[in-house]
Specification:
There is one protein chain. With about 300 residues, this protein is mainly beta. The chain has one domain. Helix content is about 10%, strand content about 50%. The strands form three sheets. Strands 2-3-4-5-6-8-9-12-13-14 form a ten-stranded antiparallel β-barrel. Strands 1-7 form a two-stranded parallel sheet. Strands 10-11 form a two-stranded antiparallel sheet. A hairpin with a 2-residue loop joins strand 5 and strand 6. The protein is elongated and about 60 Å long. The N and C termini lie far apart (about 90 Å).
C-alpha cells in the first residue's frame, strides 16, 4: 500500500483536486499603448498670471504585456499640450505620437488536457502564435485631454479631482499581425486600430525655493470592444477580464523644464515611463507670497 500511494497521488490531483495542476494557458493581444496612453502632462499653477501655457514633451516607455509578461515593448512618445486655468479650474489637451516595437514572445506547448470547471475549451494555439514570434513595429497618433478642480494649499496646490481621456489610432506591423491571428489561437484579439481611455485623477503639487514637485495618481477604464466586459474568464487571475489602468507618477519642474517618471499598471500590461517636457512660454506670477520665489527662479 505504501509503495502504490505515490502513484495514486497524481491521479487524485487530476480528478479530485483541479488546483493541483496549472490553469490552461491563455493569450491576449491588445493595443500596444494599452496602459501607456495616459502619460503625465504638466500644468500651469493657479498662481500663474499667464492663464494659457504651451508644452512640448518627449519620453520613453517600456514594459511587458500578455499573460505572465510573455511579450514586451519599447516605445518613444511625443506630445504637444495646450493648458489653461480659470480660477479653480484647469483644462488641457493636445496631440500625441508614439513609435515603438512590440516583441511577441514564444509560447510553450501545453501537454495537459485544457479542461477546467468553467469552460471546456480555452482558445489557445501555441503553434499558431509562435509563427508570429519576434519584433513588430507599431505607431499611434492620438489626442489627450482633461480637466481638474484645484484648490491652493500651504506652499502648493491640490488638484483634488480630475477627469482625463485619450483617443488613439494605431498603425504598423503589429496591428497587421493581430488581424491575421485566428480567433481559436487567443482569448482576446483586438483587431481594431482605435483605442481610448477615460479616467479620474488626483495630484498634489508643492513649491520649493528650487522649483516644484508633485505626485499624481490616475485610474481609468478602456471603453469599447473588446476591452469592456468581453465575457472572457482569465484563469491565471481568477476573474473575468475588463481592461483598466492605474498610473502613479512623480515630477520635478525647474524653470520651464519638467522631468517625470511614471509607473503604469494595466490589464495584461505593466511598465515604466520617463520623460521631459518643456514649457514654450515662461510662467508669470501675480502679486502674492510666491511671487518673489518666482522672480528668482525665472529671472523676472
Amino acid at each position: 500500500m505504501n509503495r502504490s500511494l505515490p502513484l495514486l497521488l497524481p491521479i487524485i490531483c487530476l480528478f479530485v483536486l483541479p488546483g493541483c495542476y496549472p490553469p490552461p494557458q491563455q493569450a491576449y493581444y491588445a493595443s500596444p499603448v494599452n496602459g501607456y496612453a495616459a502619460q503625465y502632462h504638466p500644468l500651469p499653477q493657479i498662481t500663474d498670471s499667464a492663464h494659457t501655457a504651451f508644452y512640448a514633451g518627449a519620453g520613453f516607455f517600456s514594459g511587458s504585456a500578455n499573460t505572465h509578461g510573455k511579450d514586451y515593448l519599447n516605445a518613444f512618445h511625443g506630445s504637444f499640450t495646450v493648458a489653461h486655468h480659470m480660477g479653480m479650474l484647469q483644462v488641457w489637451g493636445g496631440p500625441d505620437l508614439t513609435l515603438g516595437t512590440f516583441h511577441m514572445g514564444q509560447w510553450g506547448v501545453d501537454s495537459l488536457v485544457r479542461t477546467y470547471p468553467r469552460q471546456s475549451t480555452v482558445p489557445f494555439d501555441p503553434e499558431v502564435l509562435n509563427t508570429y514570434t519576434g519584433a513588430h513595429s507599431f505607431g499611434s497618433v492620438g489626442f489627450h485631454g482633461g480637466a481638474n478642480l484645484v484648490i491652493p494649499i500651504n506652499s502648493g496646490e491640490w488638484r483634488v479631482i480630475g477627469v482625463e481621456g485619450s483617443v488613439n489610432h494605431e498603425f504598423g506591423q503589429y496591428l497587421a499581425v493581430r488581424r491575421k491571428i485566428p480567433d481559436t489561437a487567443a482569448s482576446i484579439i483586438a483587431r481594431g486600430a482605435a483605442y481610448g481611455t477615460f479616467g479620474v485623477s488626483s495630484e498634489i503639487v508643492g513649491y520649493t525655493k528650487n522649483g516644484e514637485f508633485g505626485f499624481r495618481m490616475g485610474l481609468g477604464i478602456v471603453p469599447g470592444k473588446p476591452y469592456t466586459h468581453p465575457d472572457v474568464y482569465d484563469y491565471s487571475s481568477g476573474h473575468y477580464v475588463s481592461y483598466s489602468y492605474l498610473c502613479l507618477s512623480t515630477h520635478y519642474t525647474y524653470q520651464q523644464y519638467t522631468f517625470y517618471g511614471q509607473l503604469n499598471f494595466a490589464t495584461k500590461a505593466d511598465g515604466i515611463s520617463l520623460g521631459l517636457t518643456y514649457r514654450l512660454n515662461k510662467p508669470r506670477v501675480g502679486p502674492g507670497k510666491t511671487s518673489h520665489r518666482r522672480e528668482v527662479l525665472y529671472g523676472k
